[in-house]
Sequence to fold (256 residues):
Amino acid sequence: MKLGDIIEPLSLDVRTGSSSLGRAVTGVYVSDLLSDVMANSGEGNVWITLQTHLNIVAVAGLKNLTGIIVVSGRNVPADVLQKAEAEKVTVMTTQLSAFETAGKLYQMLYA
Amino acid sequence: MALNINEIIEDSFQLIGGNFATAGEASTQLKMKLTELGVDETIIRRAAIATFEAEMNVIIYAAAARLHYVITPRNITIRIEDMGPGIEDIQLAMQEGYSTAPDWVREMGWGAGMGLPNMKKNSDEFRIDSVVGEGTTVEMVINFP
Fold:
């Protein structure tokens, strides 16, 4: 499954890094603890979080994640979007909660 | 796999405490260097995680630090010397889940007591030395396969 395939079913708003929509989604990781994501997420994973500060871009970049989904309609500050665009990190936002987002992705990946 | 390392490669970074915006710069540079050298991906991942956690510790707790890395044909050594509060009880600080981070840092998703354990887990050799009121030095060695 490619990143682009999850945009419509999850009603995601692609905020940055739209050039990466062809990348494969290897799995999903849900966490708001950044050290946990550093330690346990896998390369190519989509990361579901409600964190919106600058460090999410560095974590996603270092772990080579396919994208970040910021849930519950949380606002992502402009400087974060700017950094994400510069570093080619795909940031997507959704009104759905983390639970709903993860549930839908689970269905798409494994059901 | 053939590594393009014929000589010792080293670099240093100045890290400034409290500067969350620059977090990950040193680890990103190191990751790029290791990628360029053709180092095994697992090693790169371990080095990036360990270095990023070290950067975060400086940003969260210290005034400033110097991060220095040395790459040889056999391994990579990452050394971080900070000017910070020091650690009173290193054994306790090494315990997963133990943290002295303030609430606002925890709200950012840091300070979960995973930093030092993550650094140790991703290193083949891990040394930590601290003097309260002066600072902490961490040295990590990751061996190439």
